[in-house]
Structure formats: structure tokens, C-alpha cells
Amino acid sequence: MSGIQKMNGIQAINAAMVEAMEADPKVLVLGEDIADPQGGGVTGTMRGLSTQFGEHRVRTTPISEQAIIGAAIGAAMAGYKPVAEIMLMNFTTVAMDMIFNHAAKLRFMSGGQTSVPITIRTLTGAGWQTAGQHSDHLEGWFAHSAGIKVVCPSNPADMKGLLMSCIQDPDPCIFVENGMTLFAPGDVADDQGPIPLGKANVMVEGSDLTIISWSGQILRCQMALAGLAEAGISAELIDLRTISPWDKEAVLASVAKTGRALVVHEAVRNFGPGAEIASTISEELFGQLKAPVKRLGGAYCAVPFAKVLEDAFVPQPDDIIAAAKSLMG
Amino acid sequence: MAEQSNAPKPDGAALVDIYRRMLRVERNDDAIRKTIRRGRLTMPYYSARGQEVIPATIGHLLNDEDQICTIYRGIQDMVAKDMPLRPLWAEIAGRVDGTCKGKGGPMHLTYPEMGIMVTTGIVGSSMPIANGLGWAAQLDGSKRVVVAFFGDGASNIGAFHEALNLASLWKLPVIFVCPNNGYGEHTSYNLATSVDKISTRAISYNMPGFTLDGNDPDDMYAHMSVAIERARAGEGPTLLECKTFRFLGHVLGDDDFYIPKEEKEAAIAKDPLPALRARLVAEGHANEEQLSKMQADLEAEIADAEEFGMNSPLPSVDELRRDVFAEEIAA
Q: CATH code at A162?
């Protein structure tokens, strides 16, 4: 009998890992503090794995991000499915050569002879006053890099299902966990299986405008929906879930219906992923739009420390309500 | 180590095979340079002329299932591992029959069926990936070993230090081979490197490290044999700094203005290729007739590969959508 459990993202990710490692002995885990004697990773998402599957499959590494991703790449080329944890997304910057020049490109540069089926799990997001080097949403960088899939889940069920898909995927994936959503509980079915990459989720149906968002900003969009309903605005909320490849069909179908689009993300607005989405909507649906496509994103600065500044950096529910209202004219 | 009486020594047959591999590298290098100069090939080319003993000895000692990760100056490592030359030439010509379908080119040649796993154009990046291949060999319970080639310049980049530390901690079956040719791009070793010998850096990572004469087949054979044996036995990695010299500068067309003339002339006077040929004859391991036949056979193989490669079809532009992911991207 299949039931539903209330769990947070940490538990959901852990459940995905246990199922993946039980099903496939080629699945490995590596990263800083990842084994049980070191705590099972910075948020404890990998807790129990080294005890259950052994420290040969679940290896704590030095603080050496290039070495971590390099080891994952090599093992993947030799038939393994490594899940590498890069503690925080800003720390991917010191492994960008391995991720961008190697993991993402080796399949293409080798003419398909080699492949790199790794999953890079990483954590980020403003809201914890961790300031300029521990909070950035860099999904746009990776989405700009051909050859790596970019996944940004917003709730526990999606975290489980999408992580299972990343691990099974024949190509490299970066799985971005957000510090606000990771601890928020949600319903996860006992039999929650893989959720296909590249498929958006229409979370709330509406008729007046489409809000496209992902990751932590989904929570703020959900808060904004109540305010919009009070103002008599019927908003459709799409959780994009996968940033690359993104679900153009679902987004275009929704905007074709509503005629208005607002993209909301925490990544810095300038040259952010919202620009790609907004541009595609404008190109494909120009004659059908009732208002210009609008974007909300992080401010063009480093993520600030002071709480008042950090709050102002990120689009808040009131900003989303104001932007939506402006589209209604 | 080579001076010790118990050091592994190449017998006559091994020396002949090492010479064959050196000659294969040198004849192929000559053919590539001629073809570029004739305007038939358009590619950046980093010749390893003068460095042949290193890849040839390693190619002799490795098995087919052993793996290598090499760098942009790396064609010699593949040719010395007996990679077939037809797909190599088709690749450097950017043709469909190239080992990478013309999509990688000379700086990214790959041939997994003979263990040629990665060729990188990024200084230092062969090493972290070699660790992962070594980790897989360890998990598989296999005896295969992985060789990571890198230049002397690469010992100053972070990836070297991260990779050596991890390889030592995890006792990975990886051999870090540095052909030290004295120059990183145009900058001489002593202007770029804080230690007299790269091998001393092995001490920091608690692994054996040796500086040896990379142009001496006996020295190469002795050290490489021990390093391979150590890796196969699960005892962990070794760092080998193999002193050598590149006769043709950093990239083809480089006029070597930054290398003192006397240094270059002295190195060329000690060209290891004719030196080994003379030794094979002097020690009776081969005669002139056999060596001339060997050379003619290699030249015929290279001429055939060149002909094949240059006449292979050009890739279709549809290839832009293939191999980005496993699944082809829709047009």
C-alpha cells in the first residue's frame, strides 16, 4: 500500500539517494564531510549512506573542488554514476574548468565516444545572511554551457523525483538545492519515482497572466498569489523545475492562453535566465501578447549581508504583486 | 635507481620496440608538419620532437587496457601507445572518419578502446580526471593503471596539487608523468617554478617522486616499471619528472627567440632518436637492414593514414546538434 509522507527536502534527497544506491551499485557519492563520521554532508542530506553502502562508495574528500569534480568525471567515464556534492554553489567557481571545459564538453569533443554521467549537487540561496560568497544563484552560468543539464527543484517531491532522474541521466546534471526550500516540509508519495528532466509543472492554473519561476522563488510566488487573488487577478504559476533544457512548450502554451508573462528568479536579473525565457516568449508570441514580458531578479550587486539589504536584493511577494499588477495595465 | 643493479632493465627486444615507437612518433610528427606547411592541414600543432623516449617507453610498458590522460602536446603519447593512425589523421583533418568525428581535433583526440581517455587543452586538467579513472580501476578491483601526462608548467597550477594530494590519500593507481622540457610556453623553468626539481613536490604529498633523464630509455624503463608495479599492487601513485627538451618550441611556427641558441644546439646534438638507433646496432639488437625496413613500414603506414584522413568526407553541420547530449537536439 502506497501512502504519503510529510518530509523536508533533506529527507527527500536522502530517500532518492538510498533508492538509487540500492538499485545500482555503480552509484557513488563524494564530497566534503560526506561520510557519516563527518556528518553526512553540510546539511546532512547524505546521512546514513556511508554506513549502509560503505566508505568505498561514499567518500569524504579534502576541500578540493577541482579534485572532487575531476574524480567524478574520471569515474563516470569508466562506467560509474558519481553524485558529487559541492557544498555551496559559489564553490563551483573553483571547479569551473572541470565542470565547463570537461564534464560538459567531453561527449561532444570526443564525438560521442566518452560520456560523463555525473550529478553535481549544490546548495545556495539568499536568506541566511551568508552574504556575497555563499548565496549566489548561478544557474544561468550553467544553462549557458552546452552539455550540462540544470535542475532547480522547489519542493520535496520534486527534489526526490528530479534527483533520481539526474542520477540516471546519461549526461552531466547540476542539481541546485535552495536553502529556503530545503527545510520546508511537503508531501512525498512513498512510491515517488523519477520526474522527467525538462518538464515544467503548472502548480496553479489561472487565466490573466503566467508567472514562471523556480527554486526558492516559488515560495514567494505562492505568497504573492493570495494578494493577486484579492486584487481579482487570476495568475497561472509555472515551476520550471529544469532550467536547461527548459520546457518551452509548457511556457508558450500557458502564455498563449493568458497573454501576459512574468519571470521571477533569484539569480541577478542582468543577463539572467529570465532574459532567455522572456526573449523566447516575445519571439514566439509577439502578436498575441497583451503586455510586454516582465522580469524580476536579484539586484545587480553581490548578495549583501545586512538583513534589510538581503531582503531588498531578492524579489519579495510585494514586488511580484506589483509587477503582476503593472502587466494588467 | 637506474644505477642500482636490481633496477628493471630493458632487454634487446624491449629496446627495439621502444625505438619502433619513437620512430613512429617522429615520422608521424614529420608528416604532420610537412602537411601543415603545404597548407593541407589547418590546425594548431604542438610538436614533441626530441621528447620521444618518454612516450615510447611508457607505450611499451603499458597494456591496452591501461589508460592515459594527456594534453595538447600529446599526439606522441597516443602514437606511442599504438593508436591506429587512420582515425588520428582523419581527426586532425576535421573529417567524419576521425576518432572524434572531426569535433575534437588535435587538442582533444580520444580513443577509449586503447585507453586514450582524455586529451585536454587546459594546462593541469589531465590530473584530476586521471584520478577518477584510477578510482574506478580501484573499485573494479582491476589491475589497470592510469598515466596522467602534464608539462612542467602544469606543476604550478592548482589542479596538480589537488590531484596529487587526493591520489596519495586514496592510494590511486595513477602515475603522474611530467616531461620537463624546460619551458612553459615562452617562460623558462627557473622563472616559473620555485623548486629545483618538480619531483621534490612529491614529498609534500607523501608519494615517491623521481627526477630522471627522460631521453635515456634505461632510466625511463627502470622508473616507469617500478611505478607501474607499485600502482598495480595497490600501493598508490608515483610522480616522475622526465627531463627532456622540445626541439620546435611551444607551437609550430614559434621562432624560439626565448631559448638560448647554445642550449637548443646542445640538445639537438644529443637527439635521442639517432642515439638509440646507433646503440641498437652497436649492441647487436638490430641491424641496419632491419631498422631501414622498420622505417619504411612506418612511413608506408603513415602515408596510408594521411591519404585516408585527407580524403575522408567533411562532417555534416547536423553534427552541431549531436553529442551535446546523448539525445540529439531537435533541429
A: 3.40.50.970
A66 to chain B: closest CA residue = B159
Q: Which residues are CB-contacts of B126 (< 8 A; sequence separation ≥ 6)?
A: B69, B70, B71, B118, B120, B148, B149, B150, B154
Q: Do A228 and A143 share a structural domain?
A: no
pLDDT digits (tens, 9 = 90+) for B242-294: 999 999 988 988 888 999 999 999 999 999 999 999 999 999 999 999 999 99
Q: In this complex, is the C-beta atom of A93 within 8 Å of any C-beta atom belonging to chain B?
A: no
One-letter amino acid for residue A152 of the chain: C
Asked whether residue A196 is domain-assigned, the answer is no
Which three cell numbers mark B236?
598508490
Measured distance CA(B124)–CA(B105) in Å, rounded: 19
| Structural domains in chain B plus CATH codes | 12-65+150-304 (3.40.50.970)
Candidate from A57, A67, A101 with C-beta closest to B162: A67
Task: Name the residue range of residue A301's domain.
Answer: 201-328
Domain match, A85 and A173 both: yes
For B25-60, the pLDDT digits (tens) are 999 999 999 999 999 999 999 999 999 999 999 999
Looking at the DSSP bridge assignments, the partners of residue B179 are: B242
Do A129 and A11 reside in the same domain of the chain?
yes
Q: How far is B273 from chain A (nearest CA, A)?
A: 32
User: CA–CA separation, B43 vs B57, rounded Å?
Assistant: 27
Mark whether A32 and A122 lie in a shared domain.
Answer: yes
> Given CB atoms, is A37 within the 8 Å cutoff of chain B?
no
**In terms of domains, do A244 and A319 share one?**
yes
Domain shared by A175 and A213, yes or no: no
At A171-219, the pLDDT tens digits run 999 999 999 999 999 999 999 999 999 999 999 999 999 999 999 999 9
- The interface pTM score, or ipTM, of the predicted complex is 0.96
CA atoms of A296 and A272, how far apart (whole Å): 10
Residue type, B189: Y
Average of per-residue pLDDT across B203-208: 98
Cell of B44: 594548431
pLDDT at A250: 98
Instruction: Give the domain-ending residue among A138, A156, A189.
Output: A189
Interface of B with A (CB under 8 A): 69, 98-104, 108, 110-112, 117-118, 120-122, 125, 127-137, 139-140, 146, 158-159, 162-163, 165-166, 169-170, 322-326
Mutate: best of B117, B150, B162, B174, partner A, most A CBs <10 A: B162
CB–CB contacts below 8 A, A to B = 146
- Cβ–Cβ of A75/B139 closer than 8 Å? yes
Interchain CB distance below 8 Å, B129 and A70: yes
| Backbone region of residue B297 per phi and psi (left: phi > 0; alpha: psi in -120 to 50; beta: other values) | alpha
Residue A15 belongs to some domain of the structure: yes
Residues of A in contact with B323 (CB under 8 A): 107-108, 110-112
- State the Rg of chain B over Cα: 20
Tell whether A155 is covered by a domain. yes
Overall number of domains in chain A? 2
| DSSP SS3 for A32 | strand
Chain B residues in contact with A171 (beta carbon < 8 A): 325-326
- Candidates A302, A251, A301; CA nearest to A274 is A251
Going by pLDDT thresholds of 50, 70 and 90, the confidence category of residue B5 is low
A16 plus A44 within the same structural domain: yes
B65, B129, B138, B322: best to mutate for the A interface, most A CBs within 10 A = B129
Residue A31, chain B, CB below 8 Å: the answer is no
Residue A67: which of B99, B104, B131 has the nearest Cβ? B131
User: Does the beta carbon of A29 lie under 8 angstroms from any beta carbon of chain B?
Assistant: no
